[in-house]
Inverse folding.
């Protein structure tokens, strides 16, 4: 047995030349540097004291790291016209309301599309799949007209409701349910007399935890990163990301605080991804488009 | 398609017509309609309706103030024959999409493929390094700092140090550099959802197939890639392509943040910028809807071409 395994392994290894391995490592290393350097530079900038920020010639590395930029950032936040807690509240409120509404209605729809055969289901899914391509900027202007018709402009609803209808989360959830839930399990639940809604909630949903974690992460990231929106013009309703961009855009004096704010803003989505990475990759396993 | 004909055949019954059968099926599955209804209401309102409305409004001179008049194809004629800036924008978008779309797609795939055989822990770290620029909010603004116009910018200072340039270059304000730089930044942020999808897809390829392939005379990793890995990955490749199209055509925001609006000499002006310009600044909604409709058509067209191309993979 052991011998057989070894020969098998040997054959697979044959398809890997040492030169190729070396070449791939080099390419990967160079690409990795290209990806990582700007991220590292933001971090360096945020830790540089003022004299290092404006040193000539500029250095990539920080010599005397300090947290003064972060302190400056908080001072700037405290001196803003609308209290900063308000911007933070806006972002958190819209992120949470948008994400959970989306999770709820998109998972219901995904369940129906994946596990119930009904006339029109396939056409509906094809439409949703096609609309994955339509970037929200392209539909922004006509959406604005619709929103002003519904008196949604300049309210939280203008951010929250469209997030409920985003397509990527539903698409991933549906694909995951297709392969992740066997029909036999659902069939036995139905035979036991469980209603379709009960089956969805108590049987299907617990089985697709990676998919709803992924949906939450994607929706949250989108909402967290939202900057200024054409649907919102009251200062009191604007997002944290917008506000932090405004206070740090105040010229070269604020370069340090600006870097600090970028680090704070990027830390959240990156941290969320680190925690959920294995679930997201698991969900992506079924992300493929079959036709 | 074949499934549908099978369904039709299954109901080749004498007691009801096809229409009656559909109606019966709909009634039987009414819970399914109840489950998708909330989502469909939102989806229809904020995705379907805006797209259809764009098409309708593109034939009018709507400007948000007056009742729109039907103007036929006037907006489209102006767009293609009288609007020089649109032609610049179309050209930039095309260059951008033709470079960034395939390059980000191939880069996502190659990196995912390269890291596929690494131990899981290392793979997770490398994934994070490559993926994080695409989710980290406005971190791309750091490119503005790195390539800042004065000699305090790190790139300028470094190039001056080694004597490559004598004067600092205003990178993001120079028509010669704006486009290539934006392409680089776009690539930097482009290892997103499709990248993760490729990683997962590669993990899912049945290892036994590689062994069988080795027995059948697959000699190197490129043959293995073409004959075994890629055909197994077709669904992910399709999904990745759709994501790449969305990314390549929807990149306007980053350009605006780095180069200002409009960019110098319209050097990085894309159709997306033109759309925003007419839609949210000049309120010529009819005209901007025509731009949006053109974009929709380009996106759907690209998608169809890619579908065709991907069907040839592994043959």
């Amino acid at each position: 047995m052991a011998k057989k395994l070894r020969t098998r392994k040997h054959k697979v290894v044959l398809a890997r030349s040492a030169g190729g391995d070396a070449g791939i490592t080099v390419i990967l290393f160079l690409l990795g540097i290209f990806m990582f350097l700007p991220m590292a530079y933001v971090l360096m900038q945020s830790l540089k004291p003022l004299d290092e920020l404006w040193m000539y010639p500029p250095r990539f590395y920080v010599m005397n790291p300090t947290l003064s930029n972060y302190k400056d950032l908080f001072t700037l936040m405290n001196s803003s016209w609308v209290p900063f807690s308000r911007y933070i509240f806006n972002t958190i409120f819209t992120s949470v309301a948008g994400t959970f509404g989306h999770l709820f209605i998109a998972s219901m729809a995904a369940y129906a599309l994946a596990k119930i055969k009904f006339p029109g289901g396939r056409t509906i899914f094809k439409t949703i799949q096609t609309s994955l391509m339509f970037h929200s900027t392209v539909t922004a202007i006509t959406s604005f007209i619709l929103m002003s018709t519904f008196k949604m402009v300049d309210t939280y609803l203008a951010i929250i409701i469209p997030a409920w209808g985003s397509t990527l989360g539903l698409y991933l959830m549906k694909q995951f349910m297709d392969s992740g839930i066997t029909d036999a399990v659902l069939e036995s639940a139905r035979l036991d007399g469980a209603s379709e809604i009960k089956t969805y909630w108590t049987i299907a949903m617990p089985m697709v935890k990676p998919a709803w974690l992924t949906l939450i992460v994607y929706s949250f990231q989108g909402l967290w990163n939202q900057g200024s929106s054409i649907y919102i013009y009251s200062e009191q309703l604007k997002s944290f990301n917008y506000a932090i961009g405004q206070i740090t855009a105040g010229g070269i004096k604020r370069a340090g605080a600006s870097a600090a704010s970028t680090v704070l803003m990027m830390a959240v989505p990156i941290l969320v991804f680190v925690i959920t990475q294995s679930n997201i990759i698991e969900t992506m396993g079924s992300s493929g488009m079959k036709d | 398609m074949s499934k549908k004909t099978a369904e039709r055949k299954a109901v080749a019954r004498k007691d009801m017509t096809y229409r009656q059968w559909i109606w019966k099926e709909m009634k039987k599955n009414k819970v399914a309609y109840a489950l998708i209804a909330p989502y469909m209401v939102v989806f229809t309102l904020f995705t379907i309706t805006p797209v259809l409305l764009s098409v309708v409004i593109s034939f009018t001179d709507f400007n948000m103030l007056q009742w729109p008049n039907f103007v036929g194809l006037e907006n489209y004629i102006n767009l293609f024959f009288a609007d020089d800036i649109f032609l610049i924008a179309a050209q930039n978008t095309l260059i951008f999409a033709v470079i960034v779309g395939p390059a980000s797609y191939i880069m996502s795939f190659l990196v995912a493929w390269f890291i596929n055989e690494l131990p899981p822990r290392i793979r997770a770290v490398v994934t994070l390094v490559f993926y994080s620029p695409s989710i980290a909010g406005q971190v791309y603004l750091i490119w503005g700092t790195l390539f800042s116009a004065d000699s305090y910018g790190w790139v300028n200072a470094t190039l001056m140090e080694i004597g490559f340039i004598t004067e600092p270059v205003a990178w993001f304000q120079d028509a010669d550099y704006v486009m290539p730089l934006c392409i680089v930044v776009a690539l930097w942020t482009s290892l997103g959802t499709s990248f993760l999808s490729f990683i997962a897809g590669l993990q899912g390829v049945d290892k036994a197939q590689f062994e069988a392939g080795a027995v059948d005379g697959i000699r190197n990793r490129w043959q293995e890639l073409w004959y075994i890995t890629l055909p197994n990955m077709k669904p992910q490749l399709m999904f990745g392509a759709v994501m790449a199209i969305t990314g390549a055509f929807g990149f306007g925001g980053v350009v605006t943040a780095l180069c200002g609006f409009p960019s110098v000499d319209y050097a990085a002006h894309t159709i997306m910028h033109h759309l925003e310009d007419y839609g949210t600044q000049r309120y010529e909604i009819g005209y901007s809807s025509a731009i949006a409709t053109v974009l929709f058509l380009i996106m759907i067209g690209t998608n169809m071409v890619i579908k065709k191309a991907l069907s040839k993979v592994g043959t």
Notes: The mean pLDDT of chain B is 86. The two ends of chain B are 23 Å apart (CA to CA). The first helix of chain B runs from residue 2 to 10. The domain at 73-310 of chain B is CATH 1.10.3720.10 (MetI-like fold).
